[in-house]
Write a structure and sequence with these properties.
Helices cover 3% and strands 21% of the residues. A hairpin with a 4-residue loop joins strand 5 and strand 6. The chain has one domain. The radius of gyration is 18 Å and the shape is globular. It has 288 residues and is mainly β. 2-acetamido-2-deoxy-beta-D-glucopyranose (NAG) binds next to loops.
Length: 288
């Protein structure tokens, strides 16, 4: 038995953002802390001028998030809602990997040079690696999930390489020195597969959750194998076919800015449609 385990997240509670992490927010993001939570306010606008990649115009939001200082582990991963699941150090929204049609957003939607785009409300967000932010530095803190756990880039100093989904648990995270963190990777599900900690319903939560069809699991992490992934109950529309990736370690443009000009499959129906609000089907799980 290791005494080290005492410091791990085994008792159901695990410390969240450190002061060092909090010091890294930029772009006017404000953080105030109470005894139990961090309150974060931001405009949601990135530092770069968002590219014109869909019919929506990026607009400043009035984000106010409240995340626990000590996230509590759920007995199993918590479902990801549609819409926002986390926030970058620039105060920009991180969304789950799905489109409104429950397809892989990174593969089927157009992104700007920083791998983000605005939704119908003008909320700029990332579904995949924020390529203008993640710069390959080891142990780079890049934001937090709404359950309170930090999100890091893929390059890990302890492994001396980039982590992949194989290094991570079903929620797309792991413990490092007794603290839990997520990693954003170039591969599905990019940011999170589920919430490791209990996430409060808060601003931006859309409440509904797309299910996988290949397992009985009720959260997205079961789609980590990328198999039958997709579709909430009652949905029949097909996802555009996904291109083959050359290897398991990222796409052809891995690690570079990606304007999506050549590798995104054509969307049936043509052009870029505005994102539709998610409509939960019967029996759709509501998150925490
Ligand atoms: C990468 O970004 C971090 C901040 O997130 C910064 O400290 C570091 O200097 C950057 N490294 C490079 C090579 O730009």
């Amino acid at each position: 038995m290791h005494t080290l385990a005492v410091f791990a997240c085994v008792v159901g509670v695990c410390a969240a953002l450190t002061n060092k992490e909090i010091a890294q927010f930029v772009n006017g993001v404000k953080i105030t802390s109470t005894t139990s939570s961090h309150k974060i306010s931001a405009t949601g606008m990135p530092e770069h001028t968002p590219g014109n990649v869909n019919p929506n115009d990026a607009k400043a939001q009035n984000y106010n998030f409240n995340i626990p200082k000590k996230p509590t582990y759920g007995s199993k991963g918590g479902c990801l809602p549609m819409g926002i699941i986390g926030v970058t150090i620039q105060g920009v929204g991180i969304f789950n990997p799905l489109t409104a049609e429950a397809c892989d957003a990174v593969l089927v939607e157009k992104m700007d040079k920083c791998n983000g785009h605005p939704d119908m409300r003008g909320a700029y967000h990332h579904h995949g690696v924020p390529t203008c932010l993640v710069n390959g530095t080891a142990d780079q803190f890049i934001g937090f999930a709404l359950d309170g756990f930090p999100i890091y880039g893929a390059m890990a100093s302890d492994l001396k390489r980039e982590v992949t989904a194989d290094d991570l648990d079903e929620c797309h995270g792991r413990e490092v020195n007794g603290k839990y963190r997520y990693h954003v990777t170039k591969e599905w599900p990019y940011f999170l597969g589920c919430f490791k900690g209990a996430a409060n319903r808060q601003q931006g939560f859309m409440g509904s959750q797309a299910w996988c069809t290949n397992t009985k699991a009720t959260h997205m992490c079961s789609c980590k194998d990328r198999k039958v992934f997709k579709k909430s109950p009652g949905r029949t529309d097909a996802c555009p076919e996904r291109p083959q990736r050359p290897n398991g370690n990222g796409g052809p443009n891995a690690g570079t800015n990606n304007n999506g000009a050549t590798r995104r499959p054509h969307r049936p129906g043509g052009g870029s449609r505005p994102m539709r609000p998610f409509r939960p089907g019967p029996g759709t799980l509501v998150g925490f």
